[in-house]
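Task: fold both queries, return C-alpha cells.
Query 1:
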Amino acid sequence: MSPGWTLSWSWAKKEVIWSMVGAQTTEQGDCSKFKGNVPHCCKKTPTVVDLLPGVPYNQQYTNCCKGGVVAAWGQDPSAAVSAFQVSVGQGGTSNKTVKLPKNFTLLGPGPGYTCGPAKVVPSTTFLTPDRRRKTQALTRKNPSCCVSFSSFYNETITPCPSCACGCQNKHSCVRKDSKILSITGVNTPRKDNAPLLQCTHHMCPVRVHWHVKLNYKDYWRVKIAITNFNYRMNYTLWSLVVQHPNLNNVTQVFSFDYKPLVPYESINDTGMFYGMKYYNDLMMEAGPFGNVQSEILMRKDKNTFSFKQGWAFPRKVYFNGDECMLPPPDTYPFLPNSVHRSPVSFSALLISSLVLFLVTGHFNI
C-alpha cells in the first residue's frame, strides 16, 4: 500500500552504487573521496525506494515506478512485481571476490519483514532469436565503451562518465599530440593485446556519440559517431546495437548498413548498425581516421514521440557485443522551458513584429 515498500541491506565490503534505474536511494552518503564521477550512493547500508509513476524514460526499468505499491499476486500478477537495476562498484569482479550483501529488510506500511540471507543463484541466461542457443551473463572488470549525448535544443554536451572504463591505464596513456605516436611500429598490436589509449577522462577504447540533430514536422534526425581511442587496435567488421523505441520506424540510414533486431516478436525497438563493405566496415586505430559516423532519419509516432525527459536518447548501446556505459540519467541534455512554450512564443513574436512594422511604417510616413 501507499507510501510503498522500502528495501535496505548492508554491503559486505566497501561497495558503492554507481547508478540506479527504476529506483533510488533515500540518501547519497559521504562520497567526498570520489572526484569527477560521483556515485549515486556511498552508504554502507543503503535504503532504496521505488520511483513515482511518470519519471523520465531514461530512469525507468521493467516493472518499476509504481510509487512502491505492489498488488497481491492472486489479484493481479502483472502488478505484483517491482524491479530495479543497480550498478555496483568496488565489489570485485569474479565469483571469488564478490561478496553477498547481508541484513536485508523490506519495510512497508505495518511491521515489515526481515529477510533471510542472500543466496547465490545461477547466472542470468539469454535466448538467441532462433531460440536454439543460450548465452550467459558475465561479470566484466570494466566496460570497453561509453556513450555521450548532445542535442540541437541544448548547448550542453553530456560526456562519457569519468573513468567509465576504469582508469587503470591512466598511467600509460598518451596525449594525442605526443611525439611517441610518430615512432615507427607504435600501432603494432602486442602479444598480450595491451591497449595504448589516448588520454581521456573516460579512458575507454571506444566512444559512441548520439546527437539529436534536427526536428521536422513528421520526422527527426540523429547523428551517430563512433570514435576509436586505442592506437593499437582497429575494428574490422564492427557492429553497433542500439535500443530506442523509435527504431520501429526507421526511414533512412546514411553511411551505415542497418538491420532491425526483433528479440521479442511484438517489440521492434532494437537495431544493428554496421559498416558498408569496402567503405567504412573498417574503423582504423585512434587518430585522424579512427572514427565512423552516420545519420538516421526516423518517422515520428505522434502518440509516443517527445523531446522531454530524455526520450530522444537510447536506452542501451552495445559495440561489438559489449554493453557501453551510458551517462547518469540526470545529466542528459534537458529541454529548455522556452521550448515548451515555443508555439506561444513564436505567435507572440510574430504579432510583436507585425505591430512594430505597422508603427514604424506610420512614423516613416
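Query 1 returned. Query 2:
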Amino acid sequence: MPLNRFSVNSCLLKCLKSFYYNPRRGFRGGAASLSSVSLKGRSCLTLKDFSSDEIKRLLWVSADLKHQIKHGKQYLPLLQGKAIAMIFEKRSTRTRMSTETGFALLGGHPCFLTSQDIHLGVNESCTDTARVLSGLCDIVLARVYSHSTLEELDREASIPIINGLSELYHPIQILADFLTLQEHYGSLSGLTVSWIGDGNNVLHSFMMTAAKLGVHLKVATPKGYEPDKGVTEEAQRLSKQHGTQLVLTSDPMEAAHGSNVLVTDTWVSMGQEEEKKRRLKDFHGYQITMQTGNVAKPNWTFLHCLPRKMEEVDDQVFYSSRSLVFPEAENRKWTIMGLMVSLLTDYTPQISMPKF
C-alpha cells in the first residue's frame, strides 16, 4: 500500500526526533541553538518582547541553577559584587522573598525600597531616579501600579529593568508557572492550559508566552472582565504563527474541557477593594472545584500565583495532590534567579537542556 503524505510526514518527524533528541543529552540541535542565545544587558518588561528560544533559554538557566544549588548543594557566586534595587509600590511575599534571597544566594547585594524609602515620580521624577540608580546598582526590579512607570525607567536607565508586576503584565510569575509545568509533565509543547477568572496581568503574560512554547490556551472570563484588546490581538497572532489554539469564552466548563492545567488568580487585585462586592457577584460560578476538573483531562493539575481566597478555588482542589501551587511558589525563586543571571552575565547552563 503506497504511503500517503501524512504517513511520509509522520515517518520524517520520527526520524528527525530520533536524530535530535537523546534522553540523556536533550535536544542536540535545540541545545546548540539555545546556547547561542544571549540576553545580557536586556530588560524584561513583558515576555511579549522575548522569542520562543529566549524564553526557553531563561527556563533552561533557571532549571540549571535549581539543579546545581538546591540538589547539587553548590555555591555559585555568579552575581558577586553586583547590587539590585528592588522598588516596591505594591507589597508582596513571593516577589520580595524570591528576589532578595535569590540575589543574595548568588553572591549579590539586594536593596529593598518601598514608597517610604524612595520618591519615585513624587519628589523625584522617574527619569532622575532611573539615572541615579544606574550609577548605584547593576539592575532594577520594580513592582509598580502603572506599566508606564516601567517603560520610563527602562527608557532612561542604562541598566536592565525587570517588571516585578504592573497592571498590564506579570512576566516573572509566568516563568515560574512554565518551569513548574515542565518539571511536572516533562515537556510543555502540546499541553492545554485553561485560565478561569479575571482578564488580568497574569493572564496577559500567559497570552504573550503560551504559544511560543507550543502550549494551547483556553480563557474563560465573565463578560466585562475580558483581557486587554491589544493583548488579545497579539495573542491571536502568536497562536496563528506557532500553530496553537486560543479559545476565549465566558463559560468556565467550556474552558476546562480537555485541559491539562486549570489556572486562576485573585478576583480582587490590590487597588480594586472598593469593587469587591460587585466582583464577587460577577464571578459567581467561576470557583474551581473537583467538578471543574471532571471535564479536564485525567492528568489535570492546578496553578494559582497566590495569595488565594476560598471563592477562587475550594480546599479540596487547592490542597490536593493535583495542586502545584507550592512548587510553583518556590519556582518564583529559581526563575527570578535565572532571569537576573541571564540579564547580567554570559552564564552557560551546565545541565542538558530540558525537553520543551
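Both queries returned. Flag for query 2: Residues 1-29 have pLDDT under 50 and may be disordered.
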